[in-house]
Write a structure and sequence with these properties.
Layout lengths: L15 H23 L4 H12 L11 E2 L4 E2 L9 H13 L14 H29 L6 E5 L3 E7 H4 L12 H11 L7 E6 L13 H18 L8 E5 L12 H7 L1 E7 L7
């Protein structure tokens, strides 16, 4: 009987087509590397791309601040809507001193921009504070209102015992002339956001009208805000009110003196850098 022929064994190694495919990939890689090496980077377009990422991803150190269209958030800074305008202005001024060197974009670093922006905001708040203190002195209220400021706002602190009876949110009749004078001062800042906050001590309270300190502080701030609206022509939308309850003490709640300090109303007049409706 005839013997069967052996089946041919498959050749060892990779198929021949893979060699051709590998050569093709290497040629394509070399081609794109060559294109990249011949290209130039447009600095303005690069900055635009970076800015687009910054609106959603924070790359600034210590605080996660983000620069982008509309707002800037981080380390207590609220909605710096004009930051891009400041960025363009700073870039333009810096660019005037450049000699056209392609390696220099003529722009300040992000940290420098934020620092300069905060400096200008702080300077404006300081000027506002001086104006408010001068008016308080003319009205004889310099000993009844504490004034402080930061890069966001000027803060007027009023003792709650002067404004309200214990457990009440109705303004005392004796306090209304003082609030009316303060409202007249606030009238000069008709383009600024004004926020009124109510604060209490940590002594638990409950009444038929007010469930707890949170509610009491909220109504106290609201009544002061309504009084200011009624005695000025300030845009109502520019006046905000909120109750902070016992959660932001400035005095020691374990002492009567500290609790008295904590029962207060704060009026914050935001500067133009932070006045966003």
């Amino acid at each position: 009987m005839a013997r069967k022929k052996r089946e041919a064994e498959a050749p060892k190694g990779s198929p021949a087509w893979m060699t051709t495919f590998s050569d093709l990939m290497n040629l394509l890689l070399c081609f794109f590397v060559l294109l990249f090496s011949m290209s130039t980077v447009d600095a303005e377009k690069l900055q635009a791309v970076i800015a687009s990422f910054q609106t959603t991803i924070s790359i600034l150190p210590s605080g996660g601040q983000t620069i982008g269209d509309g707002e800037m958030i981080g380390n207590g800074i609220n909605q710096l809507e004009e930051i891009n305008m400041y960025l363009d202005k700073s870039s333009g001024e810096e660019g005037e001193h450049q000699s056209g060197n392609a390696e220099e974009t003529g722009e300040l670093t992000e940290v420098e921009i934020v620092h300069k922006y905060q400096e200008q905001a702080l300077a404006e708040s300081e000027q506002m504070q001086e104006e408010i203190e001068a008016q308080l002195y003319e009205m004889g209220l310099q000993n009844q209102v504490e004034v402080d400021y930061n890069a966001q706002y000027v803060e007027l602190t009023l003792n709650g015992a002067i404004l309200f009876d214990s457990g009440s949110a109705e303004l005392r009749s004796e306090a209304e002339p003082m609030i009316e004078k303060i409202a007249a001062i606030l009238q000069t800042f008709d383009s600024n956001i004004i926020e009124i906050e109510g604060h209490t001590d940590n002594v638990p309270m409950h009444s038929e009208r007010f469930e707890n300190n949170d509610v009491l502080s909220m109504y106290r701030a609201l009544h002061v805000a309504d009084f200011v609206r009624a005695h000025t022509t300030l845009p109502p939308a520019h006046i905000k009110s909120s109750g902070r309850g016992e959660y932001v003490p400035i005095g020691d709640n374990t002492t009567e003196e500290g609790r008295a300090i904590n029962r207060r109303v704060e009026i914050k007049v935001y500067n133009s850098y932070n006045s966003d409706i």
